[in-house]
Amino acid sequence: MSHRRLRTLRALSSAVLLAANLFTLPAAAAQAGVTRTDLQRRDLSSPGREAVQVRVDLAPGVAFGRHTHPGEEIIYVLTGAIEYDVEGNPPVTLKAGDVLFIPAGTVHAAKNVGAEAASELATYTVAKDKPLLTLAQ
């Protein structure tokens, strides 16, 4: 196979995987008052793993329900005050500049507890063949 065809095949494969991942996000990921902006998605040196960075904006009083991820989530609060309810821990409220680590598969939820919009930078290190987000029951 020529180098050009191989590059084209790789690009198409990446696009298909990205589209599949986006379409497998639950409808709740697009709920009113929550905006998720994909910033980047890159393969990691570990086969079958990728890093995904997403900016999540929450309107005042809006909560994002209980869910899990197929890998670790590292949160950096950009603005506002967000309460995180991580299974097995008491709820914690973080403000701009605070960070939080959520282990793979851990059920958690977030709520904007401030009077203004709140934003976080979420970085995931996840398995490529699984949905990025799964709602908990």
Automatic annotation (TrEMBL):
<dbReference type="InterPro" id="IPR013096">
    <property type="entry name" value="Cupin_2"/>
</dbReference>
<feature type="domain" description="Cupin type-2">
    <location>
        <begin position="55"/>
        <end position="121"/>
    </location>
</feature>
<dbReference type="Pfam" id="PF07883">
    <property type="entry name" value="Cupin_2"/>
</dbReference>
<protein>
    <submittedName>
        <fullName>Cupin domain-containing protein</fullName>
    </submittedName>
</protein>
<dbReference type="InterPro" id="IPR011051">
    <property type="entry name" value="RmlC_Cupin_sf"/>
</dbReference>
<keyword id="KW-0732">Signal</keyword>
<feature type="signal peptide">
    <location>
        <begin position="1"/>
        <end position="29"/>
    </location>
</feature>
<dbReference type="InterPro" id="IPR014710">
    <property type="entry name" value="RmlC-like_jellyroll"/>
</dbReference>
